[in-house]
Design goal:
alpha+beta; Alpha-Beta Plaits; four-stranded antiparallel β-sheet; 5 helices
Length: 146
Amino acid sequence: MIERYLTPTQESGRKFFMRKISGSVVMLNLLRFRDIADYSETPELSPPEPITGEAAYQLYIEHTLPYLERSGGEIVFMGSGGDYLVGPIDERWDSVLLIRQDSVESFIAFAQNEEYLKGLGHRTAALEDSRLLPLVQTNDINSDRY
């Protein structure tokens, strides 16, 4: 069976929190969509007709955006993936998403918001696999060194 990564584990969540990141954090999302969204875990969210994983992810974004913005977050970049220039030839990511959050605390508050969680099933239905990598800026891109 192929291992899928759709949600954080308790251990990965603990390690993220223990990094003690101060200031903003950018979440790098790598997304691989299902051909047809699978709403078997959340049939109450299922559209009347089958839709693609990409369409289901768009429903997730539409549901999520108000909660994200109220929590101090924003979508910095969303774009299409493709074949690697450098990387495994048998691995693909359909979409890349960068989300900036004011702080780890605001991210956690957003991720635990009950109203946000009611639409999380669109994400689960949409994705075949994903990766989520928290990033912290380490230099001043406006400095003369770069």
